Amino acid sequence: MKKLLIVAVIISAFFISFTVKGEYVSAKSAILICADTGEVLYSRNQDMRLPMASTTKIMTALLVCENGELDKKVTVTKEMITVEGTSMGLSAGDVLTRRDLLYGMMLVSGNDAANALAVSVGGSYDKFVDLMNEKAVSLGLHNTRFATPSGLDGEAHYTSSRDLAIITKTAFEYDEFLKVVSTRSIILSYGNPSCKRQLINHNRLLKMYSDVIGVKTGYTKKAGRCLVSAAEKDGMRVIAVTLNDGNDWDDHRKLLDLGLSKLKSQSLSGYSINIPVVGNNARLVVDIPEKSVGVSKDKTVYERIFVPAFLYGPVKKGEEIGFFEVSVENDTFIKEKIISEVDIGKKENPIRLFWLCFSAILRSFNEG
Known about the structure:
Helix content is 34%, strand content 29%. Helix 2 (57-67) runs parallel beside helix 5 (111-122) and helix 2 packs parallel to helix 7.
């Protein structure tokens, strides 16, 4: 009896340790990645195709931020708000900026806001969905297909936890995206007559977990509970995705803890590049600032700069002259263009200038 009891205690202790460390989640599909390198820190059925409900709106927000003009005003039409599900309470005739609609879409999951943004950016609902699918292809997502900008269920509307993590990682390249999804609440003015309304973020992790910086909840009967979250600490950032997870809040806290425990903050060197310009006495100087990234504790980071030994003048401001690359075990996760920040004109050689002037004088005599 004692032996059985000891075995039971050992099994129980192992299961508790296994669960607390984040090695188990309730989701049908889940993934945890380093937001800088894209390295997979944990996964479960990461390529399984599943409906993703309103986490779809991460792609919608990515395209809106990519298109820009966030202060552009959008006039709401009846067609935009004729949509079921969650709403930010728009009415036909309301005039809001794209930025306002982003908050309405990402904080309270407004399907009306998603439709308004889709029409504003794509020209029509269907054309915007085409843009979503084109973006998925460009990102190399093989298990994603969009049918709506809001996430309402559709015949061909699905993703995988891996693909959704990549979409989120890409969206984090835009500061405005991060600002929106990390906002707990905001007051906007709209309606007829216009009045102030407070929108409170549905993402409870923003209150439950001190290091959380977003990003989006989702639910439909078909998709179940879906959640994408991200946390940042000491220069390290991780992204967690669960699809069809009845215990998502707890699972995400475990996943985020696990991710941050596996990473280290790696400082990247700053560089000052000095390149001579042929045909000009000047030299082109470009500075690459220092920065920090999160990488796995057991991985080595490699930094490379690719620039020519010299340049031919003239060099124009904004001209690409090389690139800066950071990789982990041959997997490149940063590749930034090195751009000239100044114009450098071409100076003629004095001897050549003299010869050109002398030749011109001779020609004038001959012609005379």
